[in-house]
């Protein structure tokens, strides 16, 4: 075998060798490249190396031809020994006597076929048009680079070339490729790109399922148009092939005769007339055959377009024949034969009339069906079901028009197949869109839309039919549509019912996902159970997706119904779980208000009817609870109404009583009002009782409050006159007033020697000035009060009146004094201005240094080190307070000295930032404290809801801060940290999954670089320290693996539990009324379980998560295989034993076959031992996995097989002795052989002899039994001339009876002939 250094050439050699199935020694490819100077190999290399233009051809062609050659070869002939006198090995045929075997040779011509290859680049030579060709088409315009090694050669070269093999008619080959490859490929590609129109933005917001943006619809329009045109091209191609066939095959042969003379001249030539008559006979035969072929021809495909193609082809063929009959030469021949009065002319005319009839019918049908072609093309090529929905009414209307107008397509025989093909096409369009293996991988809305549209298409097909049918009936002008509805709608109705089932499944899934979503987790205390239920919900569709057969085949209806029944049972079980979760949630609610809030939440998320009905019953329970609460409050009111409890300190008694009563009625009112707004509550039977109880309580409280108020009013009116006599103003001693005035006066009279003393004096002046308005308002108010007392003639003491009279004078004197002192200090203030300015300069410098430190190192400049920021926060707060105090002191000095107040923007900015930072760090400190508290929570007590509510509260608090505060960098870092913490909470929930085992925790510690010990004292502190948000992918992988492994673990446990508990059904075996032992009952269900579990284990073993259970699964696969094989052999042994036991035990066969009977007794003993052991412990696993049990059973099977063979040999020997035993079965023959009573053959005589019902046995004088006569089924008796004794073996005396029957018949026949001749004479 030649190896080429260029890996590209070697790859081409391998492809051509495999494609043409070439021999290796010698290989025609090597011979081709070895010819001449290696020009072919150079052409190949040139083809591989050159860089082609954009539109230039790039094709390498290999052609296979076979050259035949006759050669003479020597054939060795073997002559056998001389006693075979007819064996002649000499070419002359003479005998060659010999006492021994001789070898001689002869010549023989043999045809040897030589395979030759030819090659061409970018050219198809004419001489190879009909040869088989293998082609390589370059997919690149660049040089084909040589691969690096042999391993990568197939992959590299396979991408760069399109290769293929072609033979036969190119048009037929192109047609086959279009029909079987390219059109299905283009359709599938379009379906993949557009998702049947459901991924192009029509559902789900304009994105496909993978989230990629939908492509422009224009591209899909181009693809649809291309597919549409491809179908049209296919039609043209079929027409061309049909026309080619017609031109080659449908030809009326015209004899090569001189037909130029006139008709009369031709008539005068008898030989000419005879030839023309033969020609007409040939035409008649040809036309008849062609018409019959066309009439029997069926559509080549099940779709409606094939129906059109059928009529198009039929019309073409029949038109060609008609056109040939209209040729002048044909008409002349017909004229000659008509005048010749040939009988064939009339026959031909009848055939031509039939041809014309069928041609007109074909033309008419094709014409009308062409009007439907556009609709049929839309059914086949529409990119979306909406296009089919638009097409169906138009199509049905067009069918109605065809039915009414067409002369031939208005019968059931024509219309029903067309509609049946149309229904098939609709089903074929719908099936891939709603295929259950991929349907549930779509988004639920997309899947529901697909199924809904598919059902609408199928329903519209049926409804459109009945609408048109009704219109035809109403018109009364045309024949009614009374078609076979089973053919038209059986499949579409079945698939529509599946669509409805799938819609129900999708709706149920959506409802369950809504029920068991995050909202339910938020209102229940058992999120783990919800996750388990969600796993069951996910598993609902697994049997549907894994259904091994095509559910759309109508014979799978029972299988589909079984799946849906199982689905509905599981749904009911999940509904019970939902009801139980709801009950548990309501048990934790202590008040009717909380229970009602819970009910509203459930109502928002629940949509299953069974669950809603359960919630309706909860409404009654809530109202009953509300009634109990009202009764409890009523009891409390009655117990404490005389001495109400204190709600606020220092509150008057009456107000306290009214407030207490109001506090009792307010909660029950606020609880009842939402009840009255909810229609579901208003429909409950307890609502009236609840309203009545509230009304009774509200009236009681109202009366209590009114009574209290009336008592207070009466008491007040009684005590008011006495209270009005009390003194309004408490008199202050004159000494106090004078002392206060003297104190202010003393402060004003100081002589300031220092700046502090000056500030004290100026401060006193400022205080007097600032309080002047307030003081004036106060003494005016006092004077007005005393004026009011005077109006009502209330007695007031003399001292009070004197003090009121001079109070304004006292204040006026003090104010005047302060103004005088202020004027006197003008010179002093000037001397202190410079000092104040110097202090302002020093403060400005100090402020600059602090501001720089605050901005560079303050609590707002710590980045994401919030703990450091919290530490330095206190220091900078104190320092800023000192700065603010210093600024305030200088501002006060400036005000006192009448200087403009200096503004310090840095102080204002730092104050603003500090206030924001204080709020931010307050949130941070609270969050840290909460986190520290949470970190002490035990892992087993994890309440994720507490953590979620807590962190959400902190994030909400942060977001409630002002926009400027949230703009600070620290706020950004804090929000980011809290969001990271929030994002880690679902990971905590994931890690809480029951699926996690110790191996998963160890893997988690390894991959995150942490270490901890999982025990009962494990707290969340370790989890927080792990910073879970940084390891989300790791945790996701581990949890996913754990969940998958748990599923496998449960599956394995299920298998183990099944086979640990599954037992054989052992039943007693009776022969008549005698118990002969025990046998296994039906094992079909056991074998079904074996197969199902084996498939499940195989599926688990194929999972990438099987690692921890691989050994167990492999062992169980072996065990189940052994169990299956053992049961099969066991049942085979049991069947053989039951058959042979009835023969060898208790019968005479054992005496006739003593050796076999002895062997069977041994087998019988062993089998009964096995069955006895099985009765004691019928566990299947134990029984089948007993060491060597399978080998033991196989040995028994072999032994039984040998017994069976011996028995068969024995029966065959009896049949050979008396061949008529072949007419009866083994059991019947055994019943004869096993009995010593001759009459046992009676019931089988009718089978061994035609119409012989029985034998007549007589007893001779010596007691010997003989067969004396044969009795027919009609009772006719044939006496045997010589009775046959029936002693000895049955086959012997049955043979004697047969021979005697023949002898008797011969004698009777002879006598009949003799007597007939005598009578005639």
From TrEMBL:
Domain Dynein heavy chain tail: 273-739
rRNA-binding keyword on record: no
Dynein heavy chain linker domain residues: 909-1312
GO biological process, any: microtubule-based movement
Keyword Cytoplasm among record annotations: yes
InterPro entries: DHC, Dynein_2_N, Dynein_heavy_linker, Dynein_heavy_tail, Dynein_linker_3
Subcellular location: Cytoplasm, Cytoskeleton, Cilium axoneme
GO cellular component: axoneme; dynein complex; microtubule
Region ranges (Disordered): 196-219
Domain of life from the UniProt record: Eukaryota
Keywords: ATP-binding, Cell projection, Cilium, Coiled coil, Cytoplasm, Cytoskeleton, Dynein, Microtubule, Motor protein, Nucleotide-binding, Repeat
GO-annotated molecular function: ATP binding; dynein intermediate chain binding; dynein light intermediate chain binding
Pfam families: DHC_N1, DHC_N2
Name listed for the protein in its UniProt record: Dynein heavy chain 10, axonemal
Annotated organism of origin: Notothenia coriiceps
